[in-house]
Amino acid sequence: MMITHLILIAKGDFARPLERPLLVTYPITLIAFGRSKLPAHRELMEHYQRLLRRYVRLKIHKLEESKHTGLRGLSDEAAQLRKYLKPQDYLILLSEAGPLLTSEKFAKELSAHLDRGTSLVFAVGSSNGWDEKLKQEASSILSLSPMTFPHDLARVLFCEQLYRAFSILQGMPYHK
Fold first, then answer.
1. For residues 22 and 109, what is the distance between their CA atoms, to the nearest angstrom?
2. Which of 1, 53, 113, 165 is the most buried (most CB within 10 A)?
3. Rg (CA), the chain
4. What mean pLDDT comes out for the span 127-133?
5. CB 158 within 8 A of CB 145
6. What are the structural domains of the chain?
7. Does 5 have pLDDT greater than 60?
8. Bridge partner list, 95
């Protein structure tokens, strides 16, 4: 998949490419529970958001963790998340319980979704995990690692992997 698309301008009986190709960016949404507590995590998020701008219109929704615990807390968080979903969204929950993908396989799957025009929404849960009903409703579950990470670090890891995926698709030297 080539991220940069050449736009042709018709002139007379022929078309010529623009001198500077226009860059098409893809909309991707990240929904995350909780606030980043450490300045280092916020700085890393800003860093990857800057890098991703050439490929992605990344919209991030930061939601509050439920004040309740147990099933009620999970249900409350699922209800909050659903408010940000549209019927056509392809929801991918990030969870250590999901399947593991290599960076190359993630890039390939991302490319397939973008080629189909899929409206991708990734979600990072709170420290409570995910509501069972929401897991069943989700289009997919993806693991960044079989290990458990704090949600603010999981956001950073996801954005890094998203940037790496686009670098792979573009043949950029970032991914070695």
1. 24
2. 165
3. 18
4. 93
5. no
6. 25-170 (3.40.1280.10)
7. no
8. none
Residue 155's φ and ψ, nearest 5 degrees, are: -60, -45
Residue whose entry in the numeric block shows the structure tokens 């800003």: 46
Q: Is the pLDDT of residue 176 over 70?
A: no
- Strand 4-5, strand 140-142: pairing: unpaired
Two tokens, residue 60: 């991030």
CA distances from 133 to 81, 137, 158 (A): 12, 6, 23
φ, ψ of residue 15 to 5 degrees: the values are -120, 145
Report CA torsion sign: 33, 50, 171, 21.
Answer: positive
Give the percent of the chain with pLDDT over 70.
Answer: 85
Report how far residue 47's alpha carbon sits from residue 41's, in angstroms, rounded to the nearest whole number.
10
Q: What is the pLDDT of residue 37?
A: 84
- What Å distances lie between residue 29 and 18, 22, 56, 71, 93, CA to CA? 30, 22, 9, 26, 12
Asked whether the predicted pLDDT for residue 19 surpasses 70, the reply is no
Are 96 and 148 spatial neighbours (Cβ–Cβ below 8 Å)?
yes
**Whole-number pLDDT of residue 174:** 77
Task: Supply 142's token pair.
Answer: 């993806």
Cα(32)–Cα(24) distance, integer angstroms:
25
Letter for the amino acid at 161? Q
Note the pLDDT tens digit of each residue in 36-68: 889 999 999 999 999 999 999 999 999 999 999
